[in-house]
Design brief:
The complex is a heterodimer of chains A (about 550) and B (about 270). Chain A has about 550 residues and is an alpha/beta fold. Chain A has 18 helices and 24 strands. The two termini of chain A are about 40 Å apart. In chain A, strands 1, 2, 3, 4, 5, 19, 20, 21 and 22 form a 9-stranded mixed sheet that branches. An 8-stranded parallel sheet of chain A has the order 6-7-8-9-10-11-14-18, with helices on both faces. Chain A has a 3-stranded antiparallel sheet with strand order 15-17-16, sandwiched between helices. Chain B has a domain at about 110-270. Chain B is built from 3 helices and 17 strands. Chain B has a 13-stranded mixed sheet. In chain B, strand 3 and strand 4 form a beta hairpin. The radius of gyration of chain B is 19 Å and the shape is elongated. Classes of the chains: A alpha/beta (about 550), B mainly beta (about 270). At the A-B interface, helix 2 of A face loops of B.
């Protein structure tokens, strides 16, 4: 053994991926990785952290947040009033200064994730044309490994390939694009709908069978084709789907149709809370939850996973690749608004929003999120997220954990929301309380498995030594908001809320193999339509500071 | 009694004295006050490094002395008491103040009364841009209180103003009352262009010798003598604001606008 052995002794370990549920287990670390305990009893570690009486879990993984790239930066610029009022993050001997508000600055984002015990996070929507921007911000986001999903649901080349009936060309293009952007997964946002919005006043795709004019494809075709392509390429993460009709009353039918359109292929439905509404347009009183039929479908279809997108009451900023949604929100709330058209690839909408517990719609959104956590029977297929910052900040995760683990607290909060929701939601009848092991699943082990990250989300030999140690507390919000230690790659980076080391973490990306014969056609298309030449488009290896390529070996 | 804070030496970079309000100082000794920290650029220093405190802070009256053009945030967020500036003041004078009174004998910088909620600011000299305005990104600017500037001011005064009164004795720059939500801005000198652009409600009064050019989205309503102006002018005189002699029984042209925002704002322009 080398002399760099590091031991965490005596903690109650919650490592559900390895079947460990609160047993006292010593953990051994060497060179940033978990290792098996030494067989020679005379081998001593060079450093020991005594975790006796404490709760030990793998580092948290946020699989759906918005922390880098052009839309995030635009939201920062749009909200100076928030930043002015928020408590600043002061510079220390170890750390940079930063700003907070609903869209923290890059350094502050990293520090706050570290402080919360999260060691990995994925930005969920980056136009590949702006990939460099996201990578550059990642280099200023310390303490966490990170990656991003590449927007493809309204990509002209993708839609053209589907229309032309050329699945192999689409497959090669998708592989080339995600690799060129140094992204991690494919993302569909309101597939087809953003293109309709770009070409028609208040346009959108209102069902997955609506024909997207000019391209003559339907959202259903985009969803199905992309799911098939992702499976054929063996990408570690399934197609990541932001369904059509986000936020609209009655949109649960679109969500169910989207799940069915996968036809047994893998699919991850993201921020599903925003897609689980009953009711009809024009009458707010009909707005209601339709989690139950959707959760039943998820429960019986193991190929489908979801993250919740929990809404928390308070002020935040909505940012989305769903251009028409941004316009819709800005009109409803009379706020400032930003819209972008990323030429051949995507759109974007940003608007401030304030979730109020007395608002019928907002209270339903809050309740619907919790219903999702409590109605999906398999915790491995539901992931904690707030769609940061859309439903609320990732800093609200400890409060969500308390809502899930403490039924009395949940009922107390339910009593404070709009009375229609209090009476109408099944939340009052749900007795389920999450265990610590289940919390470890929905915040670490589950997202790691869903993302295909075999070296994360668990603490078996070979895993990244990303570890969070909590002091147990009756109030689970208190317990989870201030870890005793956070260890990243085998180094203690946070101790009692103080950042001890300013490390940066890696960029996680994929580079699927593809038929390079397609490049001539892509190059020709670029020369015709793009504002950037084909040869200048891909992000090169030397552009990334510290990166890790994840293998594409998942069989569909 | 008055607490005097005299600037002892110039600073090569701005000093920021946010938080040194009359009420917060009133319970402290002079030694404690000199130990309070202020910002010199991005560095925290003791107040006593640049200012000498004397007098008695107990009555919540603070007199800042010296050339304070590089001293920002004087009287910011104050809620009661009085601030006197014997000389010039820097930017953000009385920012977000809720009550009390600030009097500046000299000139003041930009953002006088930015997002102020209440109280009174009287600058005897000139002031900079964005008097009573919203800070960038904010939903509303000044939402109450009174600002009186005897001299000239810059651009964008009353930007997104929500309530209160802003009066300028001298000349104004461009975009008076830009995006104004409500409240009143009265000016008595020459003015620039594009006033009231995007205004929703509120009153802009241009009583100087030359009528300003109007945006095409303002529509003439009538010519009349508003009685309310007599009352307003009497109130301003009672506060010591030097009004021109020829504004009694003023006849004005009333314009409504900005029509692109519903046309509920009013602009009063001295009739030729």
């Amino acid at each position: 053994m080398s002399d760099s052995l590091f031991k965490i002794s005596g903690g109650y370990l919650y490592d559900p991926a390895n079947g460990i549920d609160g047993q006292v287990v010593d953990l051994w670390i060497q060179d940033g990785k978990m290792v098996a305990p030494p067989t020679d009893p005379h081998v001593l570690p060079t450093r020991v952290v005594d975790a006796s009486g404490m709760v030990v879990m793998p580092g948290g993984i946020d699989m759906h947040c918005h922390i880098a790239g052009p839309k995030v930066n635009m939201a920062r610029k749009m909200r100076p009033e928030e930043k002015r009022k928020a408590e600043p993050v002061r510079r220390t001997a170890t750390t940079h200064s930063g700003t907070m508000g609903s869209v923290p600055s890059t350094f502050a984002t990293g520090y706050k994730y570290m402080g919360l015990g999260y060691t990995t996070a994925f930005d969920a929507a980056v136009p590949p044309l702006s990939a460099r921007h996201a990578h550059e911000e990642f280099e200023d986001t310390p303490g966490i490994d990170k990656g991003f999903y590449v927007l493809m649901g309204n990509n002209h080349y993708v839609m053209k390939s589907i229309h032309d009936g050329e699945p192999e060309r689409m497959k090669a293009f998708v592989a080339w694009l995600v690799g060129a952007a140094k992204g991690y997964a494919t993302k569909l946002v309101n597939p087809g709908g953003v293109e309709v919005w770009k070409h028609h006043a208040s346009g959108n795709a209102h069902s997955i069978d609506q024909m997207i004019d000019h391209f003559d494809v339907t959202p259903r075709q985009i969803i199905h084709s992309m799911a098939r392509t992702v499976d054929e390429l063996g990408l570690p993460h399934a197609v990541h789907i932001h369904c059509n009709n986000l936020g609209m009353p009655g949109n649960w039918e679109t969500t169910l149709a989207t799940m069915k359109a996968l036809e047994g292929q893998r699919g991850h439905i993201t921020h599903i809370q925003f897609h689980s509404y009953g009711g009809g347009e024009g009458d707010e009183a009909t707005f209601c939850s339709r989690v139950q039929p959707l959760a039943e479908y998820v429960n019986t279809h193991p190929e489908i996973t979801v993250d919740v997108g929990q809404v928390m009451f308070g002020e935040t900023t909505s940012m989305t690749g769903d251009g028409p949604l941004g316009y819709y929100l800005a009109n409803i709330y009379g706020t400032k608004w930003f819209s972008a058209d990323t030429e051949m690839e995507a759109g974007c909408g940003i608007a401030p929003i304030k979730y109020r517990n007395k608002s019928l719609v907002h209270a339903w959104q809050w309740a619907i999120g919790l219903e999702w956590y409590l109605l999906v029977t398999d915790p491995w297929r539901v992931v904690m997220s707030t769609d940061h910052p859309n439903g609320g900040s990732f800093l609200a995760y400890p409060q969500i954990i308390r809502l899930l683990m403490d039924r009395t607290y949940r009922q107390d909060v339910l009593k404070t929301v709009n009375p229609v929701v209090r009476e109408g939601s099944v939340l009052a009848d749900l007795e389920r309380e999450y265990t610590l092991s289940e919390i470890a699943i929905i915040t670490r082990a589950g997202p790691a498995r869903i993302l295909g990250l075999q070296h994360k989300g668990h603490l078996g030999p070979g895993a990244d030594a990303d570890i969070t140690i909590y002091a147990p507390h009756e109030n689970k919000e208190t317990m989870f908001e201030l870890p005793r230690y956070v260890i990243k790659d085998g180094r203690i980076v946070v101790e009692d809320g103080e950042i001890r080391e300013n490390m940066f973490g890696r960029t996680l990306h994929v580079e699927p193999a593809y038929d390079r014969g397609v490049e001539a056609d892509i190059a020709d298309w670029f020369e015709q339509f793009y504002s950037i030449r084909f040869r200048n488009y891909p992000v090169t290896d030397d552009y990334l500071h510290d990166a890790q390529r994840i293998d594409c070996t998942v069989n569909g | 009694m008055v607490l005097c804070l005299r600037l002892q030496k110039p600073s090569p970079v701005p000093l920021e004295v946010e938080g040194l309000t009359p009420e917060s100082l009133s319970t402290k000794s002079l030694a404690e006050i000199e130990r309070l920290t202020i910002f010199q650029g991005n560095r925290e220093v003791a107040l006593g490094e640049y200012f000498r405190a004397s007098g008695d802070p107990g009555d919540a009256v603070v007199e800042w002395q010296g050339d304070l053009a590089g001293v920002h945030w004087i009287g910011a967020k104050m809620t009661t008491g009085e601030v006197r500036v014997v000389g010039n003041a820097g930017r953000h004078l009385g920012s977000e103040m809720r009550g009390g009174r600030i009097v500046v004998e000299g000139d003041a910088g930009d953002w006088v009364g930015g997002e102020m909620h209440g109280g009174l600011i009287h600058v005897h000299g000139r002031a900079g841009h964005l008097v009573g305005a919203a800070y960038r990104g904010s939903a509303r600017g000044m939402s109450g209180g009174t600002i009186m500037i005897n001299g000239d001011v810059g651009n964008e005064i009353g930007h997104t103003m929500r309530r209160g009164m802003l009066v300028v004795g001298g000349n104004t720059g461009d975009l008076v009352g830009f995006n104004m939500l409500a409240g009143s801005v009265l000016t008595f000198g020459e003015t620039g262009i594009r006033h009231g652009a995007g205004m929703h409600r509120g009153t802009l009064g241009f009583f100087g010798p030359t009528a300003p050019p109007l945006l095409p989205t303002f529509r003439h309503a009538c010519r009349y003598r508003p009685e309310i102006l007599r009352i307003v002018f009497a109130s301003l005189r009672s506060h010591g604001f030097p009004l021109p002699d020829d504004v009694e029984a003023l006849e004005v042209d009333l314009y409504n606008g900005d029509m692109i925002e519903g046309g509920r704002g009013e602009m009063l322009i001295r009739a030729a």
